[in-house]
Amino acid sequence: MNVESRWILAIRVDELPDGEKTALLLEGNKVLLLRKEGVFFAISNKCPHMECPLSKGTLEDYVIKCGCHDWKFDIRNGEFLDAIEIKVPVYETKVMDGSVFVNLEGAGI
Amino acid sequence: MDSEKRKEKLRAMFSKVVGPLGYKFSPDTELVDFLLEQEVNIEKEKGSPFCPCQGLTGEREHDMKLVCPCIPFHREHYDAMKRCWCGLYVHKDIEDPDSLMQISLQEFLESKK
Amino acid sequence: MKKVVLYTLSTCPWCMRAKKFFREHDIPFEYVDYDKADDKTKRDIKEDCLAHGSEMSFPFVKIGDDVVVGYNPDKYSKLMGL
Ligand code: SF4
Ligand code: FES
Questions:
Q1: Which residue's CA is the closest to the ligand 1 atom numbered 7?
Q2: Is the CB of A47 under 6 A from ligand 2?
Q3: Which of A35, B30, B80, C12 is the most buried (most CB within 10 A)?
Q4: Predicted complex: ipTM over 0.90
């Protein structure tokens, strides 16, 4: 199978302060972009439990806690802390020329 | 949203959660239907589809671990029974759910000693 | 005959089966639906459950001085001497 990268321009670097998060709609995909210790992380904004937007949750260290029922996910690998078999999709990010790009490869399946 | 539709929505969301954990909906379709219906009613009343077979205490930390599917928070206990407490979900290899027993948490913990 | 008390939930099929078991065996029993109870009763039931190492799993069946958590007809029968 030929898996192609789909790098999409998300935001400008200075639009998201460190420790913050923002919900984005990238080509129809609900994405949550987070900035932590200078690094950008992108995950699906839909909680794997009941699809609540994770953007309404709270971020502590590298863990986002869904605001609906408190399920916790590691934003680095998407793993649900109480059962790592359950994952929120994670997307690659890169910074180029002051802008953040998200690789939507595999999104929307 | 009407109840039937919500039931189907819960069914779709929850099967994606329990699948990776090695569980499926019980082959006892009547039981599954009844339990999902209870969850839809509980969700209407309390805002979340809490477990129909376990009691809420009003403490968020306790109660949020009883939103269906609660398997991640009771994994070892349920794996030992090959079903969740309600029997809504069973291990994927189970064809005869009536052969499975409810084992209390205390019995389970004692059996591990 | 031993006194039988059931703590149940109005939404729980195994609680219904437990009630049915005692009914079918003509054993008189009392029951309280935890989810429909007032706050004071709820607190008492919670204490009782926790004291028996049960995390609020229903049905909670008291037969004389013994407790069975869960639907378990074999245990009910044994404790009732059936
Ligand atoms: S015991 Fe079963 S039905 Fe009840 S919340 Fe847990 S997974 Fe859902
Ligand atoms: S929807 Fe996120 S924890 Fe339930």
A1: B69
A2: yes
A3: C12
A4: yes
